[in-house]
Design brief:
Elements lengths: L4 H23 L6 E4 L4 H6 L1 H11 L3 E4 L2 E2 L2 E2 L4 H10 L3 E6 L7 E2 L4 E2 L1 H12 L4 E4 L4 H4 L2 H19 L4 E5 L3 H4 L1 E2 L2 E2 H7 L6 E6 H5 L5 H7 L6 E4 L1 E4 L7 E4 L8 H11 L4 E4 L9 H14 L3
Parallel strand pairs: 1-2, 1-16, 2-5, 5-8, 8-9, 9-12, 12-13, 13-16
Antiparallel strand pairs: 3-4, 6-7, 10-11, 14-15
Helix pairs in contact: 11-12
């Protein structure tokens, strides 16, 4: 077979381009997996989501986690619109918070409501990896039978999300560690009765401290169960119902770097989501920038 010069050059150029792309892929810096829970700057997001997201991107954030999904819109944007807004800013959204409620499951039909199916569908449109529920109703967590039935639905939720290439997840507050059901800690029941292949746990170690629980104890007890973390530091609260409140990373008593280093190594953690809920006189947007800079200093 004879190869003329033009075809040889074309073939060589394509091979060189492919090799260059392969090398770029091999040696490119790994994607940063530090993100921001947008609840941290909820007032800014309510006032002007585009301007706020632009500021986050300029700070160096690459991931966001939503806390506002209403009537099939994210912060007022339709899913395809919000996806474009994020993409234009170089942002992605690997996870989001939407509370899974009673009205999302029809026990008689043994099926999810259309409202929840739309939630999962829209999460998939945004390219989410995790669909996370950050709450459990009190009547469910007070009754053992109701709780076990609800956790079985959690596993079914995992199956529903898996059909779209995602996983269902649960995010803790403090009550999971403070409350017991038939003498057993609620969080243990949740972890022991959800399938880790279908349901991930997003450990918020700021919240759990308000129940007297220690992040390292939980990470060691359930290795590999926490692909996502809510990264918080805590100081003694000046008011309110909780003994501790969040603060800028590195300024509190949690020992955040030790926790996230261990979680990355042993806990299966790959998404590190910064969340700040108390600001000690700072502007929220200033607080989340300081937190990101601290994470960068720690190598995240």
């Amino acid at each position: 077979m004879t190869i003329n010069r033009r075809n040889f050059i074309k073939s060589s150029s394509l091979s060189l381009a492919a090799l260059t792309l392969a090398n770029d892929s091999l040696f490119a810096a790994p994607k940063k997996l530090t993100g921001i829970q947008l609840y941290s700057i909820r007032d800014d997001m309510k006032a002007n989501p585009l301007e706020t997201l632009t500021k986050l991107a300029e700070m160096g954030y690459t991931n966001v986690e939503h806390a506002n999904y209403v009537d099939r819109k994210f912060y007022g944007y339709k899913p395809t619109e919000f996806k474009k807004v994020l993409a234009d800013l170089g942002l992605s959204m690997p996870s989001g918070h939407t509370v899974f409620n009673h009205d999302h499951w029809d026990a008689g039909k043994k099926d999810f409501s259309d409202k929840w199916k739309y939630t999962v569908e829209d999460a998939a449109t945004l390219g989410q990896e995790f669909v996370i529920s950050p709450w459990m109703a009190e009547d469910i967590r007070k009754d053992r039978d109701a709780l076990m039935a609800f956790l079985e639905v959690f596993n079914k939720n995992g199956e529903l999300c898996a059909a779209s290439g995602m996983k269902f997840g649960y995010h803790n507050h403090h009550f999971e560690f403070a409350e017991k059901v038939n003498g057993e800690m609620l969080y243990d029941i949740i972890l022991q009765n959800t399938d880790p292949k279908l349901v991930i746990q997003q450990l918020d170690f700021g919240n759990m401290i308000n129940a007297g629980a220690k992040p390292m104890d939980t990470l060691k007890k359930y290795p590999g169960r926490f692909p996502s973390l809510h990264v918080k530091d805590e100081i003694k609260s000046n008011g309110g119902n909780d003994p501790y409140e969040s603060t800028v990373l590195g300024k509190g008593m949690v020992g955040v770097k030790e926790v996230i280093d261990y979680a990355k190594k042993k806990g299966g953690s790959k998404h590190f989501i910064i969340e700040v809920e108390s600001y000690q006189g700072m502007e929220p947007i200033e607080s989340v920038e300081l937190c990101l800079n601290q994470m960068k200093d720690w190598g995240y």
